[in-house]
Amino acid sequence: MATPCLTIKNLTLAYADYVIQQDLNFTVNQGDIFIIMGSSGCGKSTLLMNLIGLMQPVKGDVLYGEDSLWQADHQTRQRLLQRTGVLFQSGALLSSMTLFENVALPLTEHTRLAAGRIRQLVNYKLALVGLAGFADFYPAELSGGMQKRAGLARAMALDPEILFFDEPSAGLDPLSAKLLDDLIRNLRDHLGTTIIMVTHELASIFAIGTNSVFLDTETKTMIAIGPPQQLLAESKDPKIIRFLTRGETAARPTDSPKTPAV
Ligand SMILES: Nc1ncnc2c1ncn2[C@@H]1O[C@H](COP(=O)(O)OP(=O)(O)OP(=O)(O)O)[C@@H](O)[C@H]1O
């Protein structure tokens, strides 16, 4: 049976009085690769910030397992957030540090592990993302795909239960994007990490998404939830169909069971 990892309850997101999304209710289960999708500006990144403690919702709550993120005191919130890792669009590596130092940073900041143990863990994480042998390189000496994978190694440094990604494959060529998808799926399969990903890359959405939510700009709320393939095959909402077929299909034909091509 599916175990809830993150529960989003009646969430309303706003910048001051400007409501971005409201009445969001959904559950991310352990082991999901959960996609947050919707057109540009609908509020995907804003939702992510409310899930990772960087921005407080104006209403509702986020539960990590059974623990409230937003009713909790600061210390408890920090403890809950230590179970997470985040990879932002930019990869956010520190340019003045080598890959080794970048990946070691969360370990030196948040643990009391001995230097030798940290070295072992960093080398393991770099090997995990295919960057063994690049520990002494600086971010500027790497390709965009390698920088993303290094960012992933850093996000994985503290063995998070949940990994959040904001547009991980943005700016990558299709092959590097596919490699990153494969890596994300491997992490889920081998380490059991739950993945929550903001993206509008259709290839990634269909390749690795096990469940998804669709945020709508017009109504300012979610208008669909379900596995992406299922939404593509079954949704009757023109907005969802247009999005998932890159605008090639405006509405589902009623006389043909054929799935539109993507
Ligand atoms: N700091 C801010 N203050 C006020 N409004 C903001 C702020 N950040 C974002 N917004 C607005 O909130 C809305 C949602 O932005 P957000 O970046 O969450 O959307 P998104 O779906 O992630 O977009 P994209 O796909 O283009 O990255 C947009 O209208 C944006 O202009």
TrEMBL record:
Give a GO molecular function annotation for the protein. ATP hydrolysis activity
Q: Which Pfam family, any one of them, does this sequence belong to?
A: ABC_tran
Spell out the SMART domains in the cross-references. Answer: AAA
Q: What keywords appear on the UniProt entry?
A: ATP-binding, Nucleotide-binding, Transport
Q: Which residues form the ABC transporter domain?
A: 6-244
Q: What is this protein called?
A: Polyamine ABC transporter ATP-binding protein
**Protein source organism:** Methylovulum psychrotolerans
Give the organism's phylogenetic lineage: Bacteria, Pseudomonadati, Pseudomonadota, Gammaproteobacteria, Methylococcales
